Amino acid sequence: MNRPRICAAIINNDLVKIREAELMVDLFEVRIDLIGDSWEKVAKTIKKPWIATNRTIEEGGKWNGNEARRIERLLQAIELGAEMIDVEFRTKNLNNIVPLVKKRVKCILSFHDTEKTPPLSELKRIVDSQIRAGADICKVVTTAKEYQDNLTVLDLVRAFHSSRIVSFAMGQLGQTSRVLSPLVGADFTYGSIEEGKESAPGQTTVKQMIDTYRILGIGD
User: Fold this and answer.
1) Which residues contact 19 (CB under 8 A, 6 or more apart)?
2) Annotation says 161 is catalytic
3) Max Cα separation, the chain?
4) How far apart are CA 190 and CA 185, in angstroms?
5) CA distance 88 to 82
6) Percentage above 90 pLDDT, the chain
7) Dihedral of CA 74/163/210/146: which sign?
8) pLDDT surpasses 70 at 220
9) pLDDT band, very low/low/confident/very high, at 105 (cuts 50, 70, 90)
10) What is the pLDDT of residues 153-191, one digit of tens each?
11) Catalytic pick from 44, 139, 161, 207?
């Protein structure tokens, strides 16, 4: 069995660490909201496919500026070579933004619940809505309050096995879902480039993720 695809989240401009991670991962996520003004410089150095993300505070990010400027930076990322753009499903004027993105690259429509894991039925409705809105990849991220929440997001992935989906639960209790989700059909999973530089709660490093898969007999 091939190792699942791993996306390394870039949260700063440490080009040395990024280059080291490039040897291990399949793609990167450029977190514009976390990197700050140097994000363009970082993006120009990446040699693997990358996702541009400019996460709002409401969905667990750090962007606190003008909304029009936030979207402008995402569209700018297309010009810099982004392969995918992550747009929050609850973004205003989504119907106008999605076609602009899809003219050039793939569009991830993402939903984040930073407090809990909603029932499976509710998560299914969210994915159905993301598909109708034009998502190339549906991303649904919840917060694990109990171990059962891992099973809920894994069941969500299995329910949409014919569509491209990314789903897992954040927090320490959700780490199992981060490892297992691509094994049941998720498009990829996320890891941090180094310990202490996580882009979300419960995120483990890329190396830890790879080591876990090796223990499971998956991949190299």
Assistant:
1) 45
2) no
3) 47
4) 14
5) 17
6) 95
7) positive
8) no
9) very high
10) 999 999 998 789 999 999 999 999 999 999 999 999 999
11) 139
**Contact between 111 and 126 (Cβ < 8 Å):** yes
| Average pLDDT of the residues in 87-105 | 96
Is the pLDDT assigned to residue 204 strictly greater than 70?
A: yes
Residues in the chain, total = 220
Q: Pick the closest to residue 55 from 99, 108, 133 (CA basis).
A: 108
Burial 152-184 (b: 16+ CB within 10 A, else e): bbbebbebbeebbbbbbbbbebbbbbbbbbbee
The Cα 157–Cα 191 span in angstroms is 19
Q: What average pLDDT is seen over the chain?
A: 95
Amino acid at 116: K
139 is catalytic: yes
Domains of the chain and any CATH numbers: 6-215 (3.20.20.70)
Residue 53 has pLDDT above 90, yes or no: yes
Structural contact between residues 76 and 100, judged by C-beta atoms closer than 8 angstroms: no
Q: Tokens standing for 214?
A: 């090796």
Q: In the numeric block, which tokens belong to residue 8?
A: 């390394």
pTM above 0.85, yes or no: yes
Catalytic hit among 17, 41, 102, 112: 112
> Position 79: which residue type?
E
Closest C-alpha among 68, 16, 28, 36 to residue 52: 28
pLDDT at 161: 81
CA distance 150 to 170: 9
Q: What is the 3-state secondary structure (H, E, C) of 191-208?
A: EECCCCCCCCCCCCEHHH
